[in-house]
Amino acid sequence: MYDVIVVGAGATGCTAAKTLSENGYNVLQIEKFKMPRYKSCSGQLIKKTVDLVQEYFGAAVPASVMCTPTENRGMIFTNDKGKVFRFEQPGLNVWRSSFDNWLAMKASECGVEVRDCTTVLLCEENNGIVNVTLRGEKTYTETAKFVIDCEGVVGRLKRKILNNTPQYITTFQTYNQGSIDLDYHYFYAYLQPELSEYDAWFNVKDNLLVLGVSVKDNEKIGVYHQRFLDYMKEHYNLHIDKQTKADKWLMPHILPGCNIDYGVGRVLFAGEIAGFLNPMGEGISAGMESGYCVAQAVMHHFDNVEMIYSDYKERVEPLHSYMKRQWSFVAKITDAFSDMK
Ligand SMILES: Cc1cc2nc3c(=O)[nH]c(=O)nc-3n(C[C@H](O)[C@H](O)[C@H](O)COP(=O)(O)OP(=O)(O)OC[C@H]3O[C@@H](n4cnc5c(N)ncnc54)[C@H](O)[C@@H]3O)c2cc1C
């Protein structure tokens, strides 16, 4: 029997698994895809994330996971009235597949048993033990004292446990060869309601221009994306020679109160699946911090489930308040976030 089974090998799962394992706990980490797995992401590591990597993983983000321009200098928002807000801050630009794979390697070096190509289908608690049904080449069961569910946005497992259907935002981004009159070192977000139903964004990865929009109504992706391209052509002289890739993903729709689901019994939630996500979709730092906090809470109160929950909530309280403050700040700079009022 494992002490803890961690579901998912994203930034959240790797942080939780590594923290527990280096403190002597017997940890199995399950990832449904083959590592390194693909994850749609702008791959912007803000300063806080870079610092958390150093703190939790004892190493700097390696050059091997970065893309050019490696240095991100901050974010530039344009609100619904066309007003520009600059947030200067040093960060990094990475490919998520390589970054998360590196985190999983670090976890594995600390003794975590990382098992990829395996899906967690079900968690059933019985007499202080969680029976976890897994599907790899065959379907089988493992047992653990606790499960930390870090399965990311779609959260089929959590949906089964809570029996609810969350609201999602669909993201769509294209990677393009071409040119534009913007500084490649920044991440740009556009909050004008005619460009998206949430936000539209631009950033650069290895000389590819990434242009994305997020929508609540899936059917409108094409219309909004084309409008965004037209806007960028008109305002920043965007020229696209060739579109090389496109991807569609989901984001949880987090409202102003930033509701968090901490878990049910011996199955705890952390990262995006729990609801930890900062405004404009920055979720890696929130994932890592919540993954670390849940691991600490489990370690400190291994024999007392109730205490784990109160400790976990206390540890993430500063992060939760920060998220709420950030959401009200974004709601203040734009009328576009009507749902948020
Ligand atoms: C378009 C887009 C751009 C973004 N850009 C940024 C950005 O620039 N910076 C930033 O900080 N954040 C960004 N985010 C948000 C960020 O990607 C997420 O918040 C973050 O990845 C959450 O980390 P996680 O570990 O909780 O989940 P994930 O990274 O999604 O990892 C969850 C893992 O669990 C696995 N899994 C799921 N279900 C199961 C199962 N049943 N069994 C086994 N494994 C399972 C998945 O395959 C996945 O590997 C972006 C998101 C989107 C959609």
Describe this structure in words.
- The protein is an alpha/beta fold.
- It folds into two domains: 2-71 and 94-166 and 254-340, FAD/NAD(P)-binding domain (3-Layer(bba) Sandwich); 168-251, D-Amino Acid Oxidase, subunit A, domain 2 (D-Amino Acid Oxidase, Chain A, domain 2).
- Helix content is 31%, strand content 34%.
- It contains seven helices and 16 strands.
- A hairpin with a 2-residue loop joins strand 12 and strand 13 (208-215).
- Helix 6 (284-300) runs antiparallel to helix 7 (305-333).
- 45% of the residues are buried.
- The model has no long low-confidence stretch (mean pLDDT 95).
- Bound molecules: flavin-adenine dinucleotide.
- Flavin-adenine dinucleotide is lined by residues 7-13, 30-33, 37, 39-44, 119-120, 150-153, 156-157, 171, 173, 212, 249, 251, 271-272, 277, 281-284, 287.
Q: Which key terms come to mind for this protein?
A:
341 residues; FAD/NAD(P)-binding domain; D-Amino Acid Oxidase, Chain A, domain 2; 2 domains; 8-stranded mixed β-sheet; 7 helices; 16 strands; 31% helix; binds flavin-adenine dinucleotide
The number of helical segments is: 7
CATH architecture of the largest domain: 3-Layer(bba) Sandwich
Q: Choose one word for the global shape.
A: globular
Rg, rounded, reads: 20 Å
Uncertain spans, ≥5 residues at pLDDT below 50? none
Number of domains: 2
Could you estimate the helical fraction of the residues in percent? Answer: 25-40%
| The first-level CATH class name of the largest domain | Alpha Beta
Strand/helix succession: EHEEHEEHEEEEHEEEEHEEEHH
Bound molecules: flavin-adenine dinucleotide
Count of extended strands: 16
Main sheet makeup: 8 strands, mixed
Distance between the termini: 47 Å
CATH topology of the largest domain: FAD/NAD(P)-binding domain
CATH H-tier superfamily of the largest domain? FAD/NAD(P)-binding domain
Structural class: alpha/beta
Strand content: 25-35%
Mean pLDDT: 95
